[in-house]
Automatic annotation (TrEMBL):
A Pfam family assignment: Glyoxalase
Protein name per UniProt: VOC family protein
Species name: Streptomyces lunalinharesii
Superkingdom, natural source: Bacteria
Domain VOC: 2-114
Lineage: Bacteria, Bacillati, Actinomycetota, Actinomycetes, Kitasatosporales
PROSITE patterns associated with the record: VOC
């Protein structure tokens, strides 16, 4: 399983304030859909953190996102092992295919691939 990046997701009602604060540490806004904003390190764009008010289409806000090369293979492997799928495999309007799964620590993980 090839992992492209891992991004912590922070539930927040203060997206603008977060952007200013993390900007002081060298982060720049690379995505903003109004309900989720992702910041990346200016000198290393794979170092990222996301802030979200709530997830637009899922019942819960994930604790982290893991981008994989093949989301369908990840989904099949986790289902086969009996993992709890919190949000089904879905093609989202913003260009990702994703699902949410609960890890052994009770954390919700957004597993995704870009279209």
């Amino acid at each position: 399983m090839y992992v492209r990046r891992i991004v912590p997701n922070v539930q927040s009602e203060t997206l603008e304030e977060s952007a200013r604060f993390y900007g002081l540490l060298g982060f720049e806004e690379v995505m903003n859909h109004g309900w989720i904003m992702t910041l990346a390190a200016a000198d290393n764009p794979t170092v990222q953190v996301s802030f979200m008010t709530d997830d637009k289409t899922a019942p819960v806000t994930p604790d982290m996102s893991i981008e994989v090369a093949d989301v369908d293979a990840a989904y099949a492997a986790l289902r086969e092992q009996g993992a709890e799928i919190v949000h089904p495999l879905t093609d989202e309007e913003w260009g990702v295919r994703r699902f949410f799964v609960r890890d052994p620590n009770g954390r919700v993980v957004n597993v995704l691939s870009h279209a």
